Amino acid sequence: MNANEKVVLITGANKGLGLEIARQLAQKNCMVLLGARDRNRGIKVAEMLKQVGNVQPIEIDYARPDTITQAAKTIDAEFGRLDILVNNAGMADPADGLPSQTDVTAVEHILATNFIGPLRVTQAMLSLIKKSTSGRIVNMSSELASLTLNGDPEWKFAQSKLLGYCASKAALNMLTVQLASELRDTNIKVNSADPGFTATDLNQFRGEQTIGEGAIEPVRLALLDDNGSTGGFSGRNGELPW
Question: Is 1 among the domain residues?
Answer without folding.
Answer: no
